[in-house]
Amino acid sequence: MNGNNEIKNLEPKIVWDIFDNITKYPRPSKKEEKIIAYIEDFANNLGLKIKKDEIGNLTIKKPATAGMENKKSICIQAHVDMVCEKNRDVEFDFDNDSIQTYIDGDWVKAKGTTLGADNGMGLAMGMAVLASNDLKHPEFELLCTIDEETGLTGAIQLGTDLLTSDLLINLDTEEDGHFTIGCAGGINTNIKYDYDKILVNGNYICYEIGLKGLMGGHSGIEINDGRSNSISLLSRMLVELSNVLEFKLNSVEGGNKHNAIPREAFATIAINENDSDKLNAFLVKFESVVKEEIITKEVNFEIISSKIETFKFYMTDDLKTRLINALFSCPTGVIRMNPDINTLVQTSLNLAVITTTEDSINILTSQRSLRESEKFSITDRINSLFELSGADVKNSDGYPAWQPNVNSELVKSSISIYEKLYGKKPIVETIHAGLECGLVGEKYPKMDMISFGPTLKEVHTPNEKIQISTVATCWEYLVKLLENLPNKN
To answer: Which residues contact 20 (CB under 8 A, 6 or more apart)?
Structure first.
């Protein structure tokens, strides 16, 4: 495997060396075999004990260093999978290719794809603790969970006899100097329409129309940033187009992941051969109108249109109407802000993915909320909407919110150490994005937990980047925290 060794020159060297190695191993969700094998080889070479549960999560244990035996034991937790996103015009095979990294000022980025610093850097730091010979720490274990990005499957099915630690540090927070002590819960909804079709018959011209260039982003972190949803915009375009001319709908495609705001969406349509000028005029006007609405945020937005070969089938008019009206009616983005903290999203919905096969149209939505009651309420709303339009609807098991522990000894110690080290207070917060802590806490209710990490931006998009300077400060802080954990009771 060939990787870019430039990041190996960065400090702290042990962390960046391991992260560079991680980028060379493909690790899509549900296909983590290669990265897991690397981690196991890494641990075996260090002579450390490995334990796995039935689903494939693993822990690696390291004894306490001299003089630290009386401190509370600590687990660092990170997930091994990554969101695999690329732009449509980028050639890349996430199942086999290495991520191509490069340095841009104070940032490490990837060439045309997601970087995988979410949660690869947290994994690298945990592995660096295992490999370091000069760190002071109590009894330590690294928990590596699988399949976090597609529904926290690894954490949901985490073995109840895998962990022995008193404390847990999750390294999946994405803003330096921020301590996360609670997060939203979530649930996904799978929606399916049977593809009722008709053979193409008549003088039609076929087009692919769509939109691209939107920012996208993490549906938990950037959901309140005013970013546009490509599937929602495409449904609006199709509804408005139906008021201008008759068209037949063959397919709709958009989005890739439940936790990524979709950046691109496309439809294949057939129109009467005399309506090409009407279509082009509509698209020009629609692009102009939408640009005026979103240009301050979505500077690269554009409408695309191209003639394609005539397809064999199109949807019945009834299915087309039910589908585009339901998509257009589907709420997306922030549903409700927290009534007590006006900067915190309480409940949201991401219209995440739509795909078309020969037999069905499939839609995936993702709901999040800090309140379990609201999580289920917005899910019921989506179920009602799509069931009324004739779709089959199924919900995932979901995951619970992580409720803050205001009496946490670990949080108090972490804040005190941070203040002594940097002369300022960290930002302690509950976030809207989902973390695995709530699920780990269900299995290990006595475990005290906190989450922090270096600064990442544009995660779940090909613009994902990690700030180099914050990796150094986060590692410095982690080392100091491990040295100063509370004593056993």
So the answer is: 3, 4, 5, 7, 8, 101
**What mean pLDDT, rounded, does the chain reach?**
95
Cα 390-394-400 angle, rounded to 5 deg = 140
Cα–Cα distance measured from residue 450 to residue 472, given in angstroms and rounded to the nearest whole number: 19
**Strands 333-337, 345-356: pairing kind:** antiparallel
Mark out the alpha helices in 389-463 (DSSP H runs).
409-422, 437-443
- Residues with Cβ within 8 Å of residue 304, at least 6 apart in sequence: 208, 209, 210, 211, 212, 266
- Please name the helix (run of DSSP H) or strand (run of DSSP E) that holds residue 226, with its range, or none: none
Catalytic residue among 81, 118, 176, 253: 81
Q: Which of 148, 166, 374, 448 is catalytic?
A: 148
What structural domains does the chain harbor? 5-184+401-483 (3.40.630.10), 193-395 (3.30.70.360)
126 neighbors 60 (Cβ within 8 angstroms): no
Helix (H, G, I), strand (E, B) or coil at 274: coil
Task: Specify whether 148 is catalytic.
Answer: yes
- Nearest CA among 422, 467, 438 for reference residue 170: 438
Report pLDDT digits (tens) over 176-189.
999 999 999 999 99
134 in catalytic set: no
> Rounded to whole angstroms, how far apart are CA atoms 229 and 237?
12
380 closest CA partner among 331, 337, 333, 433: 331
Which residues lie below 8 Å from residue 312, measured CB to CB, with a gap of 6+?
A: 199, 200
Contact 141, 62 (CB under 8 A): yes
Beta-carbon neighbour count of residue 325 at 10 Å?
16
56-90 residue pLDDT tens: 999 999 999 999 999 999 999 999 999 998 987 89
CA 244 to chain centre: 37
